[in-house]
Design brief:
alpha+beta; ten-stranded antiparallel beta sheet; about 30% helix; globular
């Protein structure tokens, strides 16, 4: 799932857990269906050929392979509905061996406690196009409509399942997953908060009032999508710092450090817990 699809530069991710508002298998089906329809429409040549692979369990005991996802959608949906260990679909031109985009889902955490969803797309110059960027956010909101996700994000030039903040804090993945409704796993151009963390931050009204976000989108089944800037291209370090300050009350403690194997890190190198403590002292003196 960490493999970079050649030519893609934008990754959309979401994490589901046992508190998802609908059965996880149904949410997996909905993610793949929504991505197929909205991100990889068959009317466009670069997505006109496709494949899918579903592995039922971690030992690879049973696999389902599909050629031409739209034509055999029901067969794929039936394989996704039991919430398998691993699933992927790729879309490409008929003459190409490289995918133009990809959809994924994999079980993670102890005993498969969580499901990590993903989609990779080609942005290129469109990362500066407001309407195309809005389409990405619309996709994420639609794909998560029946979920209260434990976490979600949209990143540019970042393909790892582990967030930049987790890498910079050397935070174990299982711990980050286990605590994802208590501590936010990271922050990106678009950051998805579960309902519990959204409530601790005062809800959509309070988050809009911080001025750190271009838009705050409510997910139907619970949680929020926080969009830092109108486009991916606009999201520079000052904007990320504003997002960090707005989300500091729910970020994990510790001072981030450079990670040599992660050139994609886009984090603020400050300890969120110290910022919280400083704010508390300032509040006590007023």
């Amino acid at each position: 799932m960490d493999d970079e699809t050649p030519g893609t530069d934008v990754t959309l991710r979401a994490t589901l857990d046992e508190r998802a508002a609908a059965p996880r298998g149904e949410l997996l089906v909905h993610w793949f269906r929504t991505a197929t329809d909205l991100l990889f429409p068959t009317g466009e040549r670069e997505f006109s050929d496709s494949w899918a692979l579903v592995t039922e369990s971690i030992d690879g005991a049973r696999e389902v392979r599909v050629r031409d996802v739209p034509a055999h959608w029901q067969h794929l949906a039936d394989a996704l509905r039991p919430s398998p260990f691993y699933a992927a679909a790729g879309f490409h031109e008929p003459s190409s061996v490289d995918d133009s985009g990809r959809i994924g889902g994999v079980r993670a955490g102890r005993g498969g406690s969580h499901t990590e969803l993903s989609a990779q797309v080609r942005g290129g110059e469109r990362v500066a196009d407001a309407s195309w960027c809005a389409h990405l956010v619309d996709f994420l909101a639609t794909a998560l409509d029946g979920a209260d996700p434990a976490f979600a994000r949209i990143d540019h030039l970042s393909f790892e399942e582990t967030t930049g903040l987790e890498a910079a804090l050397k935070r174990p993945r299982r711990q980050a997953l286990r605590e994802s409704r208590t501590l936010l796993r990271g922050y990106s151009w678009v950051t998805g908060l579960p309902a519990e963390l959204a409530a601790r931050l005062g809800g959509p009204t309070a988050l809009k009032a911080t001025g750190a976000f271009h838009a705050v989108h409510e997910i139907h089944a619970g949680g929020l999508l926080l969009q830092a800037t109108e486009t991916l291209a606009d999201c520079d370090h000052p904007h990320m710092k504003a997002v960090f300050h707005a989300l500091a009350p729910v970020l994990p403690p510790g001072t981030p450090e450079e990670a040599p194997d992660r050139p994609d890190l886009r984090v603020v190198f400050e300890d969120a817990s110290r910022l919280r403590a400083r704010r508390g002292m300032e509040a006590d003196t007023t």
